[in-house]
Amino acid sequence: MNQTRRGPVASFFVGLWDVMNFTRRLITNFLFFGLLFLLLMFILAAIAGGSARPVLDRSTLVIAPEGMLVEQYTADPFTRSLAKALGDGRDEVQLRDLLRALEAARTDRKIERVFLHLDGLQAGGFASLREVADAIARLRASGKQVIAFSEQMDQKQYLLAAQANEVYLDPMGMLLLEGLGRYRQYFREGLQDKLGVDVHLFKVGEYKSAAEPYVLDAASPESKEADLFWMNDVWQRYVADVAKARRLPPAQVKSSIDALPAAVTNAQGDLAQVAIRQGLVDGLKTREQVEDLLAERGLADEDAEGGFRHVTLERYLAHLDEGLRPVVGGKQVAVVVAEGEITGGDQPPGTIGGDSTAALLREARDDEHVRAVVLRVNSPGGEVFASEQIRREVEALKREGKPVVVSMGDVAASGGYWISMNADRIYADPSTITGSIGIFGLFPTIPRTLEKIGVRTDGVGTTPLAGAFDITRPLDPQVGGVIQSVIEKGYRDFTGRVADARGRSVEQVDAVARGRVWSGAQAQQRGLVDAMGGLQVAIDDAARRAKLGERKAWRVRYIEKTGTPFERFFGGVAESRVGAMLLRDSDMARTLLARMAPQAARDLRFLEKVATDRRGAPVKAVAYCFCGL
Question: What is the CATH code for 185-218+439-456+468-512?
Answer without folding.
Answer: 3.40.1750.10
